[in-house]
């Protein structure tokens, strides 16, 4: 039985349009399957958007608990990248990565589109459980929003040096929270973000606010893993 994970890993990266075919094949035919096979990883979801002359991707993995981020199974994979991964890591641009416990969640199901926001939890006034849950419940109650979740980054776990990390040309960036709005369509996602920006996150969002469309999902059951 697939149980709701208590943590997430969130990853952003850009590639050039001419690199997209090989990149998508790597993701869907090797990389996500490899990651979902790691102890403590439950599922992986890939989202995509077009930004000017780039293709931008948001990938999130659902984890049984945050300890999987620094666990031996995951670190073993990060320190032994496949040949395909060794070819792919250096092309990733504007790379950002952070993982940790999900501290608040509201809503039901998964949306067709998502807006993942890297945020400063202190600037957003989201350091208490009450404030965190109040925010996600309010946004999840908006029209055509499926669910909202807030993850607090475990900097120590996601900052462990690895071979994969050394192969990437861009730094992972620094942020301590990720708020993800999952909606049924783009208009609802943008309306939800507009509501956030008019109040809590006006000065706390740390990056662009793109809407990403779902393009691939895999969980342990679909991969035939226990």
Automatic annotation (TrEMBL):
It comes from the Bacteria. This is Uncharacterized protein. The lineage of its organism: Bacteria, Pseudomonadati, Pseudomonadota, Betaproteobacteria, Burkholderiales.
